[in-house]
Amino acid sequence: MRRSTRKWWRVSVSCLATILLVMSSSAPAITDAEIPPDLKPWVPWVLEGHEDLACPIVNDARVCAWPGTLRLDVRKTYGTFELWVRTDRRMAVPLPGGQGAWPRAVTVDERTLPVTEENGRPFVRLEPGTHRVRGSWQWTARPQRLRLPVATGMVDLVLDGSPIAFPAIDKEGWIRLGTQAAGPPTDERLVLDVSRRLADGVPFQVTTRVAIRASGRGREVVFESALVPGTRPVSLAADIPARFGPGGELIMQVRPGNFSLTFDAIHDGPVARLTAPAPGGDWPDREYWVVATDDRVRAVTLRGLAGVDPARTSLPKEWRSLPAYLVHPGDILEFDEIRRGEPEPPPTGSSCREVSGSTWAAPA
To answer: For residue 38, is it within any domain?
Structure first.
């Protein structure tokens, strides 16, 4: 291989690694269109050992498994559990329990599998797909609480033969098994507070923060159009199980308590107007938007939305220095472009040369 060719491949693969790792650190998926054709065969090699970078973040941890309802039947001297779970890759899936309540006789799809230990927590290794996991515990005295996997959203608890309508689960993921677990019945309510930060750049990015207050039974909630039309999700972080479906729908497993969810989305190509989404259901009928413009990219005038005082809104404090707007479903924000780029842009450099007609450079 000629020296120039070897150098080209070293630069190309180095750029690809930078692109994939930087993007994947916040993105659940990278489309084929974003990778030059000559570099596509190298994708598996670059991502080897980093497969979980494509998974959502729940409670500061990457979660590559989507759990169904966890069913617990707890008695004075023993307990059993059953969980349906879908895994995106071969991985170790956490089980309920731990020290003092170690899972026994664990089966996956009716096949007995060993339970491994990582940092004092029980795990079972699953192949990609949908699985039924079952197991049991034995104890001389029932513990007062039991630790659940971090991504658990929906729990059915039977305590001494009696169903508990509203099991008590704290923010650390412990479910209480004492008499207080029943608690007083509460109405099923879901209150969301939505704020978005629009950053006019290349690419155009929308960051959405959702404050969640839920009561009642644990349940799955789906919003078909939580994304601003024309954008696609590139990251998701939450402290409850949440993900985007194949059609862009936002899926959350809510349980009683206060939680937060943040996702980033980008718009492919220049933006002339954006329409506020209308998810319906429990999604609020108003949102607060702030807009960050960048004169180095283009100068714009904003039209179409009613301005508000950021100090009188529920916007995150770090966003309140930006122009703020009250937005209702269907409202339109227009970007009237005055000028593109700086009048006299300073010289710039790139860490990667042009590859297959596209320039790829690692962010500063």
So the answer is: yes
Look at residue 156 and give its three-state secondary structure: strand
Half-sphere exposure of 319 (CA within 13 A, CB side): 23
Q: Which of 273, 266, 200, 211 is nearest to 233 (CA)?
A: 266
The pair of three-digit structure tokens given for residue 358, joined into one six-digit string: 């596209």
Q: Which residues contact 15 (CB under 8 A, 6 or more apart)?
A: 39, 351, 352, 355, 360, 361, 362
- Band (pLDDT 50/70/90 cuts) for residue 158 is very high
Are both 244 and 286 inside the same structural domain? yes
Residues 228 and 320 in one domain: yes
Same domain, 261 and 224: yes
Contact 43, 31 (CB under 8 A): no
The pLDDT score that the predictor gives to residue 47 is: 54
Confidence of residue 55 (pLDDT cuts 50, 70, 90): low
Shared-domain flag, residues 245 and 329: yes
232 and 257 part of one domain: yes
CA 29/CA 26 separation, integer angstroms: 9
Q: Do 123 and 155 have their domain in common?
A: yes
What residue numbers bound the domain in which 89 lies? 62-181
Enter the tokens of residue 151: 């991504």
User: Is 313 within a domain?
Assistant: yes
Q: Looking at the structure, tell me whether residues 313 and 197 fall in a common domain.
A: yes
Residues 41 and 121 reside in one and the same domain: no
- The secondary structure of 285-345 as a DSSP string is S-EEEEEE--TTTEEEEEESSEEE-GGGS---GGGTTS-EEEE-TT-EEEEEEEEES-SSP
Count of the separate structural domains present in the chain: 3
**Measured CA distances, 357 to 37, 353, 354 (Å):** 10, 10, 6
Choice between 136 and 26, residue whose per-residue pLDDT is larger: 136
The pTM (predicted TM-score) of the whole model is 0.69
Containing 117, the helix (H) or strand (E) segment is strand 116-118
What one-character DSSP code corresponds to residue 40? G
Q: What is the CATH number of the domain that holds 318?
A: 2.60.40
Among all chains, which residue has been given the structure tokens 């479906």? Answer: 245
- How far is 361 from 353, CA to CA, in rounded Å? 8
**66 closest CA partner among 99, 38, 28:** 28
State residue 4 phi and psi, 5-degree precision.
-65, -35
